[in-house]
Amino acid sequence: MTNSEPKVGISIDIEADGKQFGHLSVPHSRNESGWGALHLPIVCIRNGDGPTVVFTGGNHGDEYEGPIALLKLVRTLEARQISGRVITIPALNFPAVMDGTRVSPIDGVNMNRAFPGRRDGSVSQMIAHFVQHRLLPACDALFDIHSGGKTMMFSPFACYHRLPDEALTRRARDAVAAMAAPISLELVELDADGMLDTAVENMGKLFVGTELGGGGTTTPATIAIAETAIRNLLAHLGVIDEKPLSREARGLSPGREMHMPEPGCFLIADDAGLYEALVDLDTDVREGDPVGQIHFPERPGREPAVYRAGTSGTTIGRTHKVLVGPGDFLALIAHDR
Ligand SMILES: [Zn+2]
């Protein structure tokens, strides 16, 4: 057994045609189950030759559009409707999804900082290792569906990264445009190491993502954006024989193409206290405008610390939690491209 051979097993043959519901089997010996394993659902739908698209939801366990939209997809999509292969993991960090938490309750690991994973690591690290060594080599494109979770709220966007490989960047931008979200964002990460995104892109494969709503819940609108993005990506890549449905064709306003050209796009807390947002999402601000302020409940006489926009643009993300501390994310400001 080579070192890249995962300890995680899989109950289905992802080379076979047809629709298969199966699971990954992650070794998980514990007090309640001495010889036990964690079963993590995976669905493979294949019909002959064509691209392989991997969909992942629940990379963070408190982000729900991905799991819900992907559960709907795997129940309704049939092999005869596609050319190629669709591999879906609706709840990548399955223990976190079942616990309603961002990171795994088993090992405290953030799945999206665990790549490329560890063969002999913790449960989350073993899952990442399986994805890295079994799924990514087999895939042509991966769509990882995120939302703001319990602590953040976003104006829904689909996103890609600017990469050294310009052709790959262009493919990702075109795919995101086809997904027809309200905002198509060229996203800059605060910390890209260990992310599934980076693992896919380092293999030269197409990666697209989303941040849809947040606050630990969903809305009909954010679920619809996820479902349309999934469907349109499959159409764009030729896996299903239909044209991506544009926003205009659905009677919606045109999407915005945005980017984050400077560090001032992120607003980060320096103080501990109660955060009051002074502007809502989708508000145009100018550099220096107050965006929010932190109050000090232990010192009622102290003026709040005002946080100002570090750049001019539109607010497309903010903290959902009110009790914040130094280093916490407060707001995201993006520019039209
Ligand atoms: Zn996330």
Describe the structure.
The chain is 20% helix and 31% strand. The longest helix is centred in the last third of the chain and has 17 residues, at 220-236. α1 crosses α6 (220-236) and α4 (166-179) crosses α6. It has a five-stranded mixed β-barrel with strand order 7-8-10-18-16. A four-stranded antiparallel beta sheet has the order 15-14-12-17, with no helix packed on it. The protein starts with 8 loop residues before the first strand and ends with a strand. It has helices at 65-76, 94-99, 123-135, 166-179, 196-202, 220-236, and strands spanning 9-10, 18-27, 37-47, 52-56, 84-89, 141-147, 152-160, 183-186, 206-214, 256-259, 266-268, 273-277, 284-285, 290-295, 305-308, 313-319, 323-324, 329-336. The protein has six helices and 18 strands. β4 (52-56), α1 (65-76) and β5 (84-89) form a beta-alpha-beta unit. The protein folds into two domains: 9-259, Aminopeptidase (3-Layer(aba) Sandwich), CATH 3.40.630; 263-336, OB fold (Dihydrolipoamide Acetyltransferase, E2P) (Beta Barrel), CATH 2.40.50. With 337 residues, the protein is α+β, with helices and mostly antiparallel strands. The structure holds zinc ion (ZN). Residues 59-60, 63, 146, 149 line the site of zinc ion. Zinc ion binds next to loops.
